[in-house]
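User: Phenylalanine--tRNA ligase alpha subunit. Structure?
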Amino acid sequence: MKEKLEKIMNDAVEKINISAKLEELNDIRVAFLGKKGELTSILKSMKDVAPEDRPKVGQLVNEARAKIEGVLEEKKTALASAAREAQMKAETIDVTLPAKKPMMGHRHPNTIALEEIERIFIGMGYEVVEGPEVEYDYYNFEALNIPANHPAKDEQDTFYINSNIVLRTQTSSTQVHEMEKGKVPIRMIAPGRVFRSDEVDATHSPSFHQVEGLVIDKDVTFADLKGTLAEFAKQVFGEDTKVKFRPHHFPFTEPSAEMDVSCFKCGGKGCRFCKGEGWIEILGCGMVHPHVLEMSGIDPEEYVGFAFGVGLERIALLKYEIDDMRLLYENDTRFLKQF
Ligand SMILES: [Zn+2]
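Assistant: Predicted structure:
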């Protein structure tokens, strides 16, 4: 009986030692220690053992059971920790791999141009003022000397919210708000988004940006206007830049002019960039119409002023020699990251 037990025990230990999986251990437990297991069948055959030997055999069976259970438990722990180690190995992070670089954003060419324009005018003592993009018809047109029957008010030119409210077509409306505050002298620029019902092409967009300027004081002359804008042109396009004023018409200024700058590519000799002209049209300007001052509550007998408006995209396109305005709005990072 003792030998039989030893054989069962050795069999069990051997099977446990060669098993490589936790499931196999469970099968071994059932085979030896289960209800129909080999060790249990020994206990069942106790009736054949002489009564005086039974305690001894019982003890041997218990020892064998304890031994098998102990080895099983050890092996189970070893297999579990091996499995955990294998899993850890599989999930290891290689810290020597280069990390994914985040995409770094940067300023849009429009923003770069705007910040430069703001820097120039702030340097000359101007204030930067912002106004609403959705504006009363009065501030966008009437108060700027554009009466109800003016062609600029055509539905082809303007986005109407209703008969009283429009998407502003110019940031000059901000100047009217500023004048109405009655705090003169005024020296301001009004940058911002404006809207026109234009078809999209290389030089037009239904939404673009303007920077308009306004100076109102007691002794302002056209010479101040010319000097200010000549300085602006030099700072944007280079020290050698010359300016030229051509008579023009705007409802809110009188007299009015358009300003050209000498081509900064050819110095005025004429090239492909300036289409052989030697000059590039930059902005509109003029002395504030007395009626505009009067409508906003400023006495035109006491105060005079000048105003100008420049397209922000125009400056950005020229500055970076971009030939299609649409590129500024497409948000193609391959294009934008060049600036
Ligand atoms: Zn040129």
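The chain has two domains: 2-90, 109-336. The chain has a mean pLDDT of 90.
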